[in-house]
Amino acid sequence: MHRLAPLARFGRLIATDLRDVTSDPEALDSTGFWAVAADFEGGLTCARFGDVRTEPVPAPVPGRWRGPDAGRWRSSLDRDGYVAGVRRIREHIAAGEVYQANLCRVLTAPLPDPDSADVDALTSLLARGNPAPYAGTIRLPGRGVEIATASPELYLRRTGAVVESGPIKGTGRTAADLLEKDHAENVMIVDLVRNDLGRVCAAGTVTVPELCAVEAHPGLVHLVSTVRGELGPEQGWRHLLDATFPPGSVTGAPKSSALKIIEALETAPRGPYCGGIGWVDADRRTGELAVGIRTFWIDRTEPAGPVLRFGTGAGITWGSDPGREWDETELKASRLLAIASGGDGGTHPGRGERARATAYRAISAEGPAR
Q1: Greatest CA span in the chain, whole angstroms?
Q2: What angle is formed at CA 278 by the lines to CA 290 and CA 212, rounded to 5 degrees?
Q3: Which of 12, 172, 215, 321 has a CA between 20 and 30 Å from the CA of residue 152?
Q4: What is the pTM assigned to this prediction?
Q5: Catalytic-role residue among 146, 169, 185, 230
């Protein structure tokens, strides 16, 4: 029986003593400290905790996390299916229906010991092997929310009336790998995020303090921009989420057209992947939600037994090379799958490299998740 207590962890911030759970975004402007998990498809879980404190992320404990066998990961789109999807998006672009769209796939593997599987133990491993600015855990047993994220991307930060977003577009192993296409892609999404925030921010307050900054993360670099604005009168979290969700960087532009393309081409729901994950302190009118990328979650609804899922994707533009876009999804996934399957958080490099290579072969060669 799975008996782990509810918990939320965001960096050094940890919340326990669950008081309330709701799907009403109005709660985020009420009182208390809330953990927030928003699925890409629109499901929202807000959990209010009574005890909030700071403490270091615990060091990984050997054997505490038993991840999937590295060879058992399966992808919702195999390489041929993904490449065909990229080509189809380029056709939509040529027809003038969209400027870019994000094409994703969901990787799935069975858990060897699901009753003891603890996403917070996985978060400890990720903190050691793939540190990220918006890393965290949301663990709500029995409510379908068990998430470990190593997200590098800010979806929304709020301090009083000031809101900020940090869209990522453009990925390479090094800065030298970044192409003109990556910069163009980032600028397109910045424009989309400006428009989204402009729906709820006071006129003239939306600015772009930073455009296409190169930001290093474990094993890769990203282009990151900053968009900032000031909420208009009577605009709260519900209005902010209505105006900006799903995040622009993981949908496309125009967002409405990109969402239709995503629905037609992707073969598995994204769930918390590409959604919003983070915390809101309603008393202080502050909060920080990450885009749910580099994110694992446990799904206990599968008839064959609980599985671990992970999503990876890439933004597709007219300048996209289908094979290169597939390679980008593998680059984003390989290090994290090795940590989740290897279970050593990078403390045994040889073991981690073997797990990474095995996972790479699994997600490259196999077809739809099953």
Answers
A1: 56
A2: 15
A3: 321
A4: 0.92
A5: 169
Examine the residue annotation and report whether 153 is marked as an active-site residue of this protein: yes
Residue 129: which of 352, 349, 345, 355 has the closest Cα?
A: 345
* pLDDT for 265: 98
Contact 273, 295 (CB under 8 A): yes
Contacts of 198-202 with C-beta under 8 Å, sequence gap 24+, read 198/229, 199/243, 200/229, 200/231, 200/232, 200/235, 200/239, 200/240, 200/243, 200/244, 201/163, 201/229, 201/230, 201/231, 201/232, 201/235, 202/229, 202/230, 202/231, 202/232, 202/233
What the block records as the tokens of 10 is 């965001």
Q: How many helices (H) and strands (E) does the chain have?
A: 7, 18
> How high is the pLDDT of residue 3?
77
Question: Does 230 have pLDDT greater than 80?
Answer: yes
Strand partners, 137: 9, 148
Q: Any idea which residue has 């309330």 for tokens? A: 20
- Residue 128, both tokens: 């050691």
Confidence of residue 2 (pLDDT cuts 50, 70, 90): low
Q: Which CATH superfamily is domain 7-65+108-260+269-321 in?
A: Anthranilate synthase (3.60.120.10)
Q: For residues 328 and 318, give the distance between their C-alpha atoms in angstroms, rounded to a whole number.
A: 16
Catalytic residue among 41, 55, 97, 153: 153
- pLDDT tens digits for 248-263? 999 999 999 999 999 9
DSSP letter string, 62-118: TTS-----GGG-EESS-HHHHHHHHHHHHHHHHTTS-SEEEEEEEEEEE-SSGGG--
Q: What is the H or E stretch that residue 44 is in?
A: strand 44-54
The Cα–Cα gap between 200 and 179 comes to 33
Q: Look up 169 and say whether it is catalytic.
A: yes
Gap between the Cα atoms of 177 and 167, Å rounded:
19
**Residue 365 pLDDT level (bands cut at 50, 70, 90):** very low
Confidence of residue 317 (pLDDT cuts 50, 70, 90): very high
The pLDDT tens digits of the residues spanning 200-224 come to 999 999 999 999 999 999 999 999 9
On whether the CB atoms of residues 233 and 160 are closer than 8 A, the answer is: no
In the chain, what are the domain boundaries? Answer: 7-65+108-260+269-321
